[in-house]
Every structure is written in C-alpha cells, then in structure tokens.
Design goal:
LicD/FKTN/FKRP_NTP_transf; LPS_cholinephosphotransferase; 16 helices; alpha+beta; about 15% strand; two-stranded antiparallel ribbon; 5-stranded mixed beta sheet; globular; LicD/FKTN/FKRP nucleotidyltransferase domain-containing protein
Length: about 425
C-alpha cells in the first residue's frame, strides 16, 4: 500500500484534499466528497449513480478500494476514515469491493475530486513523466535545493508508485531476538507480571522497536508520551487494554534536522520504502498540531506520533496564568468545533527532566553502562498532568470517554 502525495499535501498544509483514512460506515469523509462533487456539478446522488460516463470514468481512472482491517477505539470513535489503495490489490488481503449505490456515488465523487486536484497540479514538462519524477526525487535528496511545490509532489508521487502494503508474517513467525536475550520477555514471564497476553505484548514491543529503527534512519529523537509514558512509569509494560502506541517529537528537533517539512516527508519516505509501516492518517500541519498515525504492516499495531510545540502567539494569557509550556494536539470527536480545530494538551516544559527507561527494550538498563538503553520518557509530573494525581490507579476508558469525562486533565480550555 502507498500513501499518496494528496495526503502529504494536507500534511504540508498547502491545499485541502481527500485524506487517506480508515474507512468506517457511515463515512463522513467520503460523504463530504459526495457533497463536494454535487456542489461543483449541481447534481444529486441519483444523477451521480445514473451518469454512465462517470461510471466509466470510475473504472478507467485510478481504482479506489476500501479495506476494513483495523479495530481501534480511537479510530472507531473518530471522524470515519479509510485506507485507499491505488492500482494495487496485494495478495494476502481480502478487500471488500464497493458496489452499493451510495458507495458508487461516493467513489465517483472521490475520483472526480482527486482528478480535479491532480490536473491542477500537473506540470507541462515535455520530458517523459518517469524521468520528471526521478528529477523531482533527485531534487528532494539534494539538501542545498529549495523545493518547489511541484517538485515535492513529484518526489512523493514517485514514492507512491514504488510502495505496496502486503502482510507477510505474524509476530510469532519472526522473533526479534532469542527468548533468553529478550529481557522484556523474561520480565513478563517473571513473578511480577500476571495475566498478561504475551503475544500482544511482543507485538507492541516489535512495533515500537522497529519504529525506533525507522526514526534512527533520519536521526530523529523521539520519546514515549501519553498512554505509553504512563505504561512505562506504572506497569513497566504495555497497558493490556491500550489500543496503540504513543510517541512524541519536539518541533525544535525537526528544525535541527534542517527543514521541518522535509524531515517529516523524509520519515514518511523511509516508512514507505521500508515497508514496515503504513501511514493511514495525517492531522494538522507540520507547523501546527501535527499528528501522524502509522500502522505496522505485520503486527497490525497502530502508533501515533505527535509533535510538541512552543506556545502560539495567541497563548499569551495562558502563559501569564500557568507559565511557560509546550503543547501537542489530537483530533476527532468534537475537535473541529474548538478554537484551533484540535484538542490541545498543555505540559510544563519537560525536555530536561526526561530519562532513559528500558521499558520494552530487549536489553535491560542494568547491562548498559552508558545508561542510554531503552527509550526517553517524560517525568512522572508529565503523567500526572495528563491523568491526574491518581494516575497510579488503573482506569479503563476510551479516547472518546476520556474527552467526555475529564480523563485527560491537561486539555486547554479554548
């Protein structure tokens, strides 16, 4: 599977588009595509379904198919979403073809919408398209070049053509290390941990370790955050009822890599070419409230990456009341109705207080004299800001329930 340049245009904040997303029924994102099409053509849903020309265009244009394969509390309660595959139906996946009248109309609207944006972005180069895309890719790899929008689109389109998503094996088929060398596994089997799904813990472990490998390819420092930071401090292993992994990145660290947007696209390109992770949702922009949602192609474990920012210019009153802070964002539910179109979470600055914890690393921290094994984790004060003073007492709630019932103590009221 591939992520398309259209999704990355959303990420870069340069133009609205139809995002790659996990499809739910009913799907309001797909519905909005129908509305967009109807507004542009002054047609109705019936007109869309009865127009043979549009139906023919559906089959001749890039094929869009929707796959339901991820069950996540956050995704299930979110703005509905779907992963769209272009011109590919990898073996090993049983995609459910869309054939109902409503689905056909949505597909027509989607293809029309995507087609209009693609035509608007096409260049008029005389050279063959493949050669042009290669030229864009070379420009992307040249750190001295200031990329144009068209060159960025071309580089991402080239990646899009090269990448497929295909399930190959399960976690049990592929061990990270020998069991005796995996200190995390040995600890799970020890006397302190009871009634934990070992296979699930190993799936989460593998996902996080392989994300670390991915981040290391571009020298991107990250830390555990939100529920995964809570797990590191409280359980010492992944919370049994958690549905994903949470990691954070400071915006300043993206700046230290050169161009923040290019750093993010570099992360996405390595993810696509490596084949281990699929980007299935992009929220916010690089400069404000970015959240990237990945899915490990084999373990099927989602991992969310959130960027942490300094206060916005409009945050003077918050700074005056609470002092300096950093913030990150999540989406879905009623986020669109909020001031910035997102839920923002405030934290006292914690970079200097982070420490390495072995957590799920295969090596125990006691065997590492450099004290750098494991993962950077914010201090306990960070966890208390998120989950309240009683954070040591396990409480089970979904993302939606946490928003509704005050489960997240540090959401900025705006």
């Amino acid at each position: 599977m591939s992520y398309s340049w259209r999704g990355c245009r959303v990420l870069l904040g340069s133009m609205p588009s139809f995002r790659p997303h996990i499809h739910r029924h009913p799907c309001t994102i797909c519905s909005s595509a129908v509305t967009q099409y109807q507004d542009a053509t002054e047609t109705t849903s019936a007109d869309i379904c009865d127009d043979k020309n549009i139906r023919n265009d559906i089959h001749s244009a890039s094929h869009v198919s929707c796959f339901n394969y991820l069950s996540s509390d956050k995704a299930a309660t979110a703005t509905p979403a779907s992963l769209h595959f272009r011109d590919r139906q990898p073996s090993g996946w049983s995609g459910r073809a869309l054939g109902a009248t409503v689905c056909e109309s949505r597909r027509a609207a989607l293809n029309e919408w995507l087609g209009m944006m693609q035509n608007a972005a096409k260049t008029t180069q005389s050279q063959p398209e493949d050669a042009y895309l290669q030229q864009c890719w070379q420009a992307f790899r040249d750190p001295s070049r200031a990329l144009t929008d068209r060159e960025m689109e071309g580089a991402i389109e080239l990646l899009d053509r090269q990448c497929e998503f295909q399930k190959s094996c399960t976690t049990s088929d592929k061990c990270l290390v020998g069991e005796s060398a995996n200190s995390f596994l040995m600890r799970l089997r020890g006397g302190d941990v009871h009634s934990v799904d070992e296979e699930r813990q190993l799936s989460f472990q593998r996902t996080l370790l392989e994300f670390r490998d991915l981040a290391n390819t571009i020298k991107l420092p990250f830390f555990l955050c939100c529920g995964t930071a809570l797990a590191a401090h409280r359980e010492g292993y992944f919370i049994p009822h958690d549905v994903d992994i949470d990691v954070g990145v400071f915006y300043e660290d993206l700046q230290d890599l050169g161009d923040p947007q290019k750093a993010v696209v570099g992360l996405l390109s390595h993810a696509a070419l490596g084949g281990r992770f699929v980007l299935f949702d992009v929220c916010g922009t690089v400069e404000k409230g970015l959240e990237l949602r990945f899915l490990h192609s084999e373990t099927q474990v989602p991992i969310d990456l959130n960027v942490y920012y300094q206060p916005l210019p409009q945050d003077d009153k918050i700074v005056a009341e609470f002092g300096p802070f950093v913030w990150t964002a999540t989406y879905y539910e009623s986020s669109a109705a909020r001031r910035h179109g997102m839920y923002r979470y405030r934290h006292a600055p914690f970079r200097a207080a982070m420490k390495h914890m072995s957590f799920c690393d295969t090596m125990a921290s006691s065997s590492d004299p450099t004290n750098t094994v494991g993962f950077l984790v914010p201090p306990e004060s960070y966890v208390e800001e998120c989950y309240g003073k009683d954070w040591r007492t396990p409480r089970r709630f979904t993302y939606a329930e946490g928003l509704q019932n005050g489960g997240f103590a540090n959401i900025i009221d705006e």
